[in-house]
Structures are given as C-alpha cells and as structure tokens.
Amino acid sequence: MMSNKTPQKLKDSLLSLDMDATMEQVDFVVKGDADVTVQEAVDAVAEALEVVGKRFQGGEWFLAELVYSGEIAKSAMELLSPLMSSGASQPLGTIVVGTVAGDLHDLGKNIFINYSKSAGFEVVDLGIDVPVEKFVSAVDEYKPLALGMSCLLTITSEEVGKVIEGLKDRGNRDKVKVIVGGAALTEEFAREVGSDAFAPDAITGIDIIKKWIAS
Amino acid sequence: MDFKQRIMTAMNHEEPDQVPVMGLIMDPSTVNQIMGKEPVDFVAMIKNPDTKDSIKDMMNQDEFWNSTYQSNWNDALESSLKLGFDANWTIYAFMQLVEDSESSLGLVWHDVFGRVWEMGSDNKGNLILNYSRPLCPTEEAWEAWVEEKAPIFEKAIEYATDFHKKLVDDYGDRIMPIGCAAPGIFENCWQPIGFVEFTKFTFQKPGFVKRVIDFYTDYYLKYLEGVMRSGVEVVLGGDDLAQKTGPMMSPEMTEKLFGESYRHIAEAVHKRDRKFIFHSCGNIYPLLDKFIEWGFDGIITMEPTAGVELGKVREHVGHKLVLIGNLDVSYLLVKGSRQEIEDAVKRAIKDAASGGGYILSAAHSHPYVDPSRLEWMVEAVHKYGKYPISI
Question: How far is the C-alpha of B123 from the C-alpha of B105, rounded, in Å?
Fold first, then answer.
C-alpha cells in the first residue's frame, strides 16, 4: 500500500535516476493502491523535472541525466495520463516545434518536447527537416502561443529567418512568440532574424515560455 | 623553418618562426571554389531515374569509391596549399549507398559503424551529408550488425591506411596531413544506437555498453595503427563529447565509461612517437582537465558559438595542451570583414601563441566558409604571427 509519502518517493526515485523504483510507485497509483490522487502523482513527476532542469542549468547534471530522467518521466506519464479525468488539468498552452529544413537533428528538439509536455504544455511536433511553409501553416492551424525552431547546422540557419518572414507575410508574426535554439545559433543571431527569444538549452526555453505566459 | 618544423615546434610548446596555420578543408563547396571547379550535383543524379541505379552500382564498388574519395582529398590538400596552410586534416570514410524507403531520395549512405547519412545539397549544388539516424537501436541489432559487417570493418582499416599513405607520399613534402583516426569512440558507441537508447543502456544495461565500448576501442586502436603506419606524424581524434552548453555526459561518467579507452589511444600514439590532438565540438571547459589526464597532446576546435574562449582555455591548461582553432565559422569566416578577421587573428595570437603551443585554425568547417576569408586569415597570421610575438 502506498502511503501519503508517495509523491516524495516518486520524486526521490526519479531524481535518483531509478527507473524501476519510479515505475513501482507509479504502479501503486495506477492500481489504486495509493492514498494519493493521480493528479498528485503527476504533479510530483512535474516537480521532479523542475529539479532536474535546475540541476542541468546549474551544471550539476549533464545531457545524459537530462535525457534519462526525461525518459523515466515519459514512462511514468504514459501510465498516469490516461487516468487523468478530462479537464482535470488544462494545458498551459500550445507550442509548435520543429527542426528547420535541411537539418535532421532531433535530440534537442525531442528533449524540449518531453520536458514541455511534462511541464503541462500541449506540443505539436512538426519533426525534422521542416519546410518554411509547414511552420507557417502550423501557426495558422494550431494558433500556438509559441513557435520553437531548432537549428544545429550553420548552413541551415538562414531557414530560421525565412520562417519568421513567412509568418510576417501571412500576417501572423504578432500572433505568436518565436523561440529558437540549437548549436548553430546565438543570442545575437536570434535577435537579428527577429525572433523573440534564444534558448541555449531546452530547459531555459521552457522557462522563457512560462515567463511569457506569466506576463 | 618549413611547414613541418613550424607545426612540430609548436606541438612541442616551443616558438617557431611564426604561428602555424592548419586548415580544415574538406567540403566540396570550399574546394571547388578554390580549385575553380564546377559543383557536381550528386543529388540531382540520384533523383534522376535514368542515372540513379548506375550511380548506386558505381559508388558501391570499393575501387570506385576509394579512387573518387582519394581524388576529393587530393583536391582538399591542393586547396590547402593554395591558401598557404602548413597542415590540413585528412579523414577517411567508407560508406555504401543503400535503398531506404524512409528517405525522400530513396537512397541513403550507411557507414560501416551502423549510422545512416542522408544526402542534401548546399546552395551551390554540392553534396552534403548529415548523420540522420541509428541502425542498431537494440542490443540484438547491434550484435547482428557487428557480426555481419566484420569483413568490412577489417577492410576499412586497410583502405584508411592506403588513403593516408597516398596523401603523405604525394603531399607530405609540401604540407602536413593531420590524419584522422577512426571516428571517435564515444560517437561510434552512441550514434549507431541513438543517444536516447544509448543513455538508457548506460543505466540499465551497463554490461552491454561496456561490450560496445570495448569493441570500438579495440577497433579504434587497430585503425589508429594503420593511420600511423601511413607516415602521419600528428593524429587527430574526432569525438564530440560536448554540445552547446556543456559535455554530453558528466566528466565523471565520461571518465568511468571512456577514460581507459582515451588513455590507451594516447599511449598507442606516444609509443610510436607521434602526437595526438583531439577534436570535440561544444562547450568543453568541464573536460579540459580530463584531456590532460588522458594524455592528449592538444585540442582542436574550441567553438566560439559554444562560448569557448581561447584565452580562458590557455589560462586553465597552461602549456599542458597545444591549442588549435577557435576562429569563428558562424559569422567571421563566412561574412566577416577583412578588419574583423585581422582583429580576431590578432586576438587569438595574443591569447594563446606566447611560448608556442598554438596553431591557428578555423574552429570547424562547413560549406559556407568562404575561401577569401580563409586567405585573409592566413595573411593576418603572416602579418602578426611572427615570433617573438609583439602584439
């Protein structure tokens, strides 16, 4: 029987990078053997990922820990999410994200998606090698609060500016915040092409979007 | 001093006559511009149903692959000579064109290590290749791959040795080929499996991960012997241990998993009285002490876009490592003005060249690096890089 210490145990096991122990706690919740609600368990996972993010940003943890804790959280959420009553928790908003045309990298994008979902965002993943038009149309279709573009290659960095121009041409630039990140980009570049923010890593990107909501 | 004395003097942390310059020339775009050649639109030929199959058949013949590849690198070294470099990296790869329904072109390259490379074109129509996905995402798939490809693994060493030997024989009296050993152990361990799956395995299946690392370490050491037998005096190990904000794995985890492998590599190189320089993209600050501990002679790249500053690296490592690179390729060597390039070269020399142990170079290469700007870079080194440095 799970005790009311379950959320703490869930957090502790996730932060110890212990997949088995985390899933054991989740299993208690799924079977109804816990005296905590599914929502409380979900909140515990989200809180643990907040700590992961801080450890990563503080240089205490690295990409491997970030990826693995994200995978543990994903496994936990795959079991917990279907049990959430509909409307129990409204998403913070929608983010459309993709890797620009010509670029096939997806690691950073996928980390961003994993953590954004755990933080409570609805995420539309356009994938890799995404043409300008697909980004622009997705903004039309999903009306997201933010559009995220990942770009790892210097030779494809021009695509970022093209997407922003495409948004302007469609009259949508002021309807969506644009955030960009990836090895090829810098704060200065992001500013020059007219994006709203540059994210040096996935966790900072999510922090920035949360601040946009708050303001 | 000739080019070789200049490089080796700097590699020994002594002051040569002037700061040496190393090139990272390899992209067809850069080479074609320097050599005055027209781009070969390989992707268009693959898209054309009339030529697709014959291209595939031709490229999959070892002899044709090797002669084409050798010819491309001959041009790369010719280009480097034209630009006035003292050295240039030389990298061998063995790949095969394979049908692939996931690819929009219907064909992708498979390398011997289990990685898929997709083709694209740069803005001039030259071929570019990008690592796209792993072929061995499970333990079973990895085991099957290495068993099936065992003959090709051995063949690739033979081909790499011949490739480097030809370059040393044909160009070694005019420029130093800095021979790249096999693709890095870290990259070769995770890229055929995928980073997410590999990371999971490090926590869940450490025995399998150790087997993968041991396999590639063993292979790397054999490949390295071949490269050194070719006459290459400075060996380059390319292995991206870091990304934009820091190492992919903590220094402790990197040490635990890969430390022994890197020590073996450095020992093998030193046993043959060669020098070993290590390339990693990304923010490598937290790994600098490891590079020294592992016995590396130098490091190359130090990406400015990942926040790496040459002066800070020199301050941290002193003269325990030769430093190579750090000239920005996101803006400076693509669009920078002559004055900006001159200023950057002066700053690099000031930050790292005192006492030797610095070789000036672009941080990396990509198709949009502009040859004219590389020329300005070399001119600036010749203007400001004479020892004793007086900047």
Answer: 18
Of the candidates A62, A68, A102, which has its C-beta nearest B246's C-beta?
A62
B3-28+84-94+151-384: what fold?
TIM Barrel (3.20.20)
Q: How far is B121 from chain A, CA to nearest CA, in Å?
A: 9
Average pLDDT of every residue of chain A: 92
A78 burial type by CB count under 10 A (0-12 exposed, 13-18 middle, 19+ buried) = exposed
| DSSP-derived 3-state class of residue B111 | strand
Q: Which domains does chain A have, with CATH numbers?
A: 6-83 (1.10.1240.10), 94-214 (3.40.50.280)
- Residue-level length of chain B: 391
User: DSSP per residue over A51-67, as a string?
Assistant: HHHHHHHTTSS-HHHHH
pLDDT in tens, A161-194: 999 999 999 999 999 999 999 988 999 999 999 9
Output the furthest CA–CA distance in chain B (Å, rounded).
Answer: 62
pLDDT in tens, A26-48: 999 999 888 789 999 999 999 99
- Contact assignment for B249 to A183 by CB distance below 8 Å: no
State how far the Cα of B332 lies from the Cα of B336, in Å rounded to an integer.
4
Whole-angstrom CA distances from B32 to A204, B66, B73, B240, B371 are: 41, 19, 12, 27, 10
CB atoms within 10 A of CB B40: 14
For residue B337, give Cα distances in angstroms to B328, B333, B344: 13, 9, 11
Q: In this complex, do A19 and B305 lie within 8 Å of one another by their Cβ atoms?
A: no
Tokens of A32: 């109804």
Whole-angstrom Cα distance, residue A11 to residue A25? 10
The answer to whether B163 and B66 have CB atoms below 8 angstroms apart is: yes
Can you tell me the mean pLDDT for B292-302?
98
Interface of A with B (CB under 8 A): 17, 19, 59, 61-65, 67-68, 71, 102-105, 107-108, 110, 153-155, 157, 182-186, 189, 200-201
8 Å CB contact of A182 and B248: no
Cβ–Cβ gap A67/B122 under 8 Å? no
Distance from B195 to chain A by nearest Cα, in Å? 8
pLDDT tens digits for B9-31? Answer: 999 999 999 999 999 999 999 99
- Which positions ≥6 away from B377 have C-beta within 8 Å? B21, B327, B333, B341, B345, B360, B362
**Residue extents of the structural domains in chain B:** 3-28+84-94+151-384
Does pLDDT of A1 surpass 50?
no
- pLDDT score of B242 more than 50: yes
Q: Give pLDDT tens digits for B21-74.
A: 999 999 999 999 999 999 999 999 999 999 999 999 999 999 999 999 999 999
Residue B140: is it exposed, middle or buried by C-beta count within 10 angstroms (0-12/13-18/19+)? exposed
Contacts of B122 in chain A (CB under 8 A): 155
